Amino acid sequence: MLTTTAVLAAVVAVAPVVAVLLARGGEEEAASGAPVPATATGAAGGYVLPGSPAEGEAPRLDVWLDYQCPVCKRFETSSGEALVELAGSGSARVVVHTLSFLDTGLGNDSSSRAAQGAAAAADQGRFAEYTRQVYARQPEQEGDGYTDDVLQEAAEAAGVGDVTRWREALDAGTYAGFVEDVQEAMPDEVEGTPTVQLTAGGSTRALDTTTLLGSDGPAYLREQVDAASAS
Q1: Which residue, of 41, 110, 202, 204, is most buried by count of CB atoms within 10 Å of its CB?
Q2: What is the share, in percent, of the chain residues with pLDDT greater than 90?
């Protein structure tokens, strides 16, 4: 399987601290044969949130996150529900990509395991709910990671109907290959997490992370989507 080499760095400035991918190798190519979870756009793809219009029918928001990223937790707290609402109302096609590069810098496999749990939750229609619950359980100390039992608690709180089937998929590493493929397919222009890109009218641009993390994050998202729809 193709591999990705990642180095974690903390960037401290006036802007928020973000998880940054400094170096990586490998080709952006999905490994053949890896199972693809429900609602994913395809091998190495992201998860389409419920209610999202078909491709090309509305502006598209692509979100890249890592479950061990503290700033991603802040983003989920400030703007996660707004993403769900934009998809549910049909205002935007929202696609969420679960990365795992922080495992290398933090010396564990918690990003990958949490992302595998997300894939198993997506198979039961609870991806967004699971993501919210995982971030609610993120350790205060970055690098402590998640135990499998904590991830299961998140799945249960998210309303995953068949937790036994969910846990079997996690224990068996059913979606380990898919999670690796998503990481390897990370676009060059995505240099850290969280990253949100808006695509409309044939052009793609990144939204301002600082604004997304603030109290005005939800309004900013809606304004950007509305402006893209009107253009």
Answers
A1: 110
A2: 84
